[in-house]
Amino acid sequence: MKALSETTVLITGGSRGIGAATAERFAAEGVRIAIHYHQAHEAANEVARRCMARGSEVLTIAADIRSREQLMRMKEQLDIHGFAPDILVNNAGSSTYGLFTDVTDEDWEDCMSVNLKGPFRCAQLFVPHMIRQQYGRIINVSSIWGVTGASCEVLYSTAKGGINAFTKGLAKELAPSGITVNAVAPGAVQTDMLSHLATEDKAALETEIPAGRLGTPQEIASLIYFLSLPESAYINGQIISPNGGWLT
């Protein structure tokens, strides 16, 4: 096992929300951090500045998670700079809200490319390094909707359900190589993904949650961090849902 301070983490979608909070959580421990983003260049740089202020070495790198070619170029750059990840946090994602009957083929392809193909491809690219060193951590950021399903988010629920199955299968395949694969499936969290909700709708949602509030990105980041620790080696193939008691 590697000491956490000797590891490198790659966080996809690290420019905001859960990804940014996760980067800052790792920075507090001095971990080397690669922050992936798509177009939010300045936001990613701001996260990097906050992480570097805590003493971490940080690299920001842009790629369209939907493109295998761009992900391959991202890997090349990470290798050149000595940032081959020991920990992969597949956080990048996008939600799709609307009636099932209105979903188009383009909607399907885009949602699956971001939420399912992206994590699959990232794992394929970075797992060989983990296998060679017989150590690694993969944490996939899923959603409570991948566990329960959601009306008007059928497409998103399908993609996240796929991530959960991917997590379970890959965990079994990689366990003999000292690599764990787990998924964090948050409930309602204060991020841009809930920006489509009106204030009264958010208030109504909070009343459904036993904790009486939405979660914070920092709370989710703490769980991701815990699953990355060397001493978390016996937690594998799990879908863990921090949701304030909404789903039990």
UniProtKB/TrEMBL annotation:
This is 3-oxoacyl-ACP reductase FabG. Residues 7-187 form the Ketoreductase domain. The gene is fabG. Belongs to the short-chain dehydrogenases/reductases (SDR) family. PANTHER family: 3-OXOACYL-(ACYL-CARRIER-PROTEIN) REDUCTASE (PTHR42879), 3-OXOACYL-[ACYL-CARRIER-PROTEIN] REDUCTASE FABG (PTHR42879:SF2). InterPro entries: KR_dom, NAD(P)-bd_dom_sf, Sc_DH/Rdtase_CS, SDR, SDR_fam. It comes from Paenibacillus arenosi. Pfam families: adh_short (PF00106). PROSITE patterns: ADH_SHORT.
